[in-house]
Design brief:
binds 4'-deoxy-4'-aminopyridoxal-5'-phosphate, pyridoxal phosphate binding, Aspartate Aminotransferase, domain 2, L-aspartate:2-oxoglutarate aminotransferase activity, four-stranded antiparallel sheet, binds glutamine, transferase, alpha/beta, PyrdxlP-dep_Trfase_small, 15 helices, aspartate transaminase, 13 strands, Aspartate Aminotransferase, domain 1, single chain
């Protein structure tokens, strides 16, 4: 059996969602909203299923969607992409990440990865024969530092994988950190694979900035997005890869043997959605920020120290001042069985030297769901 995969546990998201089902718990673990998603986008998809193309679309994605992605990023970030040479549609960001890593990494290459790390990166780096070089980010700010980057970048560095906004820590990185990372990528001739699936989910007026837009990064950055997050339709699994033609061409060679294509009717609906007026996106942020505040203030009232969430569907709490004498993992196991609320231990996002006192809650839920979870947790600390 393949040693990279045989020894892996089931991902924490699946494991926790199963525990939530087994215990009849409210699931604030895995990140998904509990409403059906934007009705107009779903109607466009339904119409495309009934009246549109249901056969293999073009391997790179339907032209309307590739054009919509390019126009969307031009509009939001002033980034100019050639839709036919620099944009590819994949089955979710998960596939986009796998295609990008396999396209770039060769045996012996070092790949810089930040902890907390999203779970799909390390196994795919290792499958490609790459050597992960882990950088530990520190709570509560989780910022990049010159010293930390200087310690890991080397002439063997082939790539860096950077998740911004950062899941699970809910950080939206400022330009200063992007410029720092860009400087190292250029000094060491490294490619940046940027997982930007949470790009539209930012709060308090913070704006996501793509690394691809930082001077000097245009031709060495692979930008990855996900319609699942942009439109709160996480099950749709429509992802995008945007990169200069020499990078995109190789990622496409991998994509053709991972999934080859992605359902055409959902692509039609995502193309429609990306063209929505700014107001839609701003309203989504406002509603999610309201849910964030509802959960944050409820948890604070119970006594949980809440760490500020700048973006994503998540907020984190720090257990260390509570004197509970248990790890984040033990705490999550206890609350799912005793209080019937599921959350995710942030230590699951580390391979070594984990932060073991931080727990992630998903707030992308109806008020009634948040209130019911808070009620259940009311004497948890
Ligand atoms: N990267 C990050 C940081 C994520 O949080 C997620 C899922 N929420 C993904 C990738 C995977 O996205 P998709 O569901 O489009 O595969
Ligand atoms: N990205 C989602 C989260 O962080 C989960 C995706 C998955 O289940 N693989 O909760």
């Amino acid at each position: 059996m393949n040693k990279v995969f045989a020894g892996l546990p089931v991902t924490v998201f699946e494991a926790m969602s199963q525990l939530a089902r087994d215990n009849g718990a409210i699931n604030l673990g895995q990140g998904f909203p509990d409403d059906p998603g934007p009705e107009d986008i779903r109607r466009v998809a339904a119409d495309a299923v009934m009246n549109g193309n249901n056969q293999y679309p073009s391997m790179m994605g339907i032209p309307e969607l590739r054009q919509a992605i390019a126009s969307h990023y031009h509009h939001w970030h002033g980034v100019d992409l050639d839709p036919m040479a620099e944009v590819m549609v994949t089955s979710g960001a998960t596939e986009a990440l796998t295609a990008s890593i396999l396209a770039v990494v060769e045996p012996g290459d070092e790949v810089i990865v930040f902890q907390p790390v999203y779970d799909s990166y390390l196994p795919i780096i290792r499958q490609a024969g790459g050597i992960p070089k882990l950088v530990r980010l520190e709570p509560p700010h989780w910022r990049l530092t010159e010293d930390a980057l200087r310690a890991v970048f080397s002439p063997k560095t082939k790539a860096v994988i950077f998740n911004n906004p950062l899941n699970p820590a809910a950080v939206v990185y400022p330009r200063e950190d992007l410029e720092l990372l860009a400087r190292f990528c250029q000094e060491f001739d490294a490619i940046a694979i940027c997982d930007e699936v949470w790009e539209h989910v930012t709060f308090d007026g913070l704006q996501h900035q793509p690394l691809l837009g930082i001077p000097g990064m245009r031709d060495r950055t692979i930008k990855i997005g996900s319609a699942g997050k942009i439109f709160s339709l996480t099950g749709w699994k429509i992802g995008f890869v945007c990169a200069a033609p020499p990078l995109l061409r190789v990622a496409a060679k991998v994509h053709q043997f991972l999934t080859f294509t992605t359902p055409p009717n959902l692509q039609v609906a995502v193309a429609y959605g990306l063209g929505k007026a700014d107001d839609y996106f701003l309203q989504m942020r406002k509603e999610l920020a309201r849910s964030r505040d509802r959960l944050a203030s409820g948890l604070q009232t119970i006594g949980f120290p809440v760490i500020r969430s700048q973006g994503t569907y998540f907020l984190t709490v720090d257990l260390s001042p509570l004197g509970l004498n248990e790890s984040d993992e033990a705490f999550c196991r206890r609350i799912v069985t005793e209080y019937k609320v599921a959350a995710i231990p942030v230590s699951a996002f580390y391979e070594n030297n984990p932060v073991t006192s931080v727990v992630r809650f998903c707030f992308a839920k109806k008020d009634a769901t948040i209130d019911a979870a808070l009620e259940r947790l009311s004497d948890a600390v």
